[in-house]
Write a structure and sequence with these properties.
By secondary structure, this protein is α+β, with helices and mostly antiparallel strands. It is built from 6 helices and 5 strands. A 5-stranded mixed sheet has the order 4-3-2-1-5. Strand 2 and strand 3 form a beta hairpin.
Length: 137
Amino acid sequence: MAAVLPAVVEQLLSEMAAAVQENARSTGLRLKFLFGSSATQALDLVDRQSITLISSPSGRHAYQVLGSSGKTYTCLASCHYCSCPAFAFSVLRKSDSILCKHLLAVYLSQVMRTCQQLSVSDKQLTDILLMEKKQEA
């Protein structure tokens, strides 16, 4: 079952990419059905342009999302990870949700091509990721 959920999410995101190009309105209803209130919150983060793609010359990248509380969370879309407490609790521990609102916002911003872009050195990206780890501890 665990392998099916990412496939469902990937399929929905592919459909959303096509829907954005066609200006389809039913996508919002499907998002709400699949992700509940997180869908509305994630769309709000996208509307506020709260998602930044941070990339380095080596090709590594991470996303930072400025949450509604003002705290910045680091998301790694390649492995479906977010540093927020909701991800740790609702997604990993309880399996109540597929994604947190921050990670969903990252995926939506990718589809809608609304990510802010920031290029940093490899060392700066490493420092960003290590700082996040220190804040969690």
